[in-house]
Amino acid sequence: MCRHLGHVGPRPVTLASRVTEPEHSLLVQSYAPADMRGGGTVNADGFGVGWYSGSGDAGALTAHSYRQPVPMWTDGSFLDLATAVTATAFVAAVRSATVGMPVSTGACAPFRDGTRIFSHNGVVRGWPDSLADLAADLPTETLMTLEAPTDSAVLWALVRRHLDAGKDPADAVADVASRVLAAAPGSRLNLLLLTRDPATGHPTLAATAVDHALSYRCGDDGVTVASEPLDPDPAWTAVDDLRLVVVRDGTVEVEPL
Ligand code: GLN
Known about the structure:
Structural class: alpha+beta
Strand order of the largest sheet: 3-2-4-1-10-9-11
Order of helices and strands: EHHEEHEEEHHHHEEEEEEE
CATH class: Alpha Beta
Bound molecules: glutamine
CATH topology: Glutamine Phosphoribosylpyrophosphate, subunit 1, domain 1
CATH superfamily: Aminohydrolase, N-terminal nucleophile (Ntn) domain
Low-confidence stretches: none
Radius of gyration: 16 Å
Number of strands: 13
Strand content: 25-35%
Number of domains: 1
Shape: globular
Number of helices: 7
Distance between the termini: 21 Å
């Protein structure tokens, strides 16, 4: 069951500072995860990072992403670049493909649409039939142009539709997680969304915990939310099940879904 993390801070940090360098970095979690719960032993079916570079001021920030359908540890160029690329906010993921779902670049989180960056850690039970009613509301064009035939790609389309309609990003992930859980009981739905307010330039990071591991840590260089703590620091706080974590303007709020 994939692993992911999101980070938002007051100034740029290297991707490596969260993704590859810590004692229990996402890189380590790709081959030695500690809390998989839903089965699977490694997260070797691909990886990705989506990030904001620039100062964070309105208009001065751009979004980028990098994904590969290979184990992170095999991409030496990425491991090198991660030490040089700095970002004020980012989402990274390593993937363990759900049985029956393809291994391809388009199936790797995070998915990105402009400055909206999304990851799903888990599985939708009974997919695809269980999502049929919810997906029926999506425009045909959206369904025909999904990046991959996976549960995560459909969840991303559902979240994006809310964002396009002007819904608050935290409300968007909470609504999708709740409605999918109702339609497909037993699903594991750790969603993670990074967005940027176009007017202020301020980022929002929203994460759900639904039957999967999630922790967060606040520090001087920002807030990190991760499937598994990146190191033994006691400042990591485990998130209870069925919670929504919202990071805005340096503060963290945890509320029931
Ligand atoms: N079900 C999703 C996929 O196959 C996520 C996988 C996971 O969390 N293990 O991409």
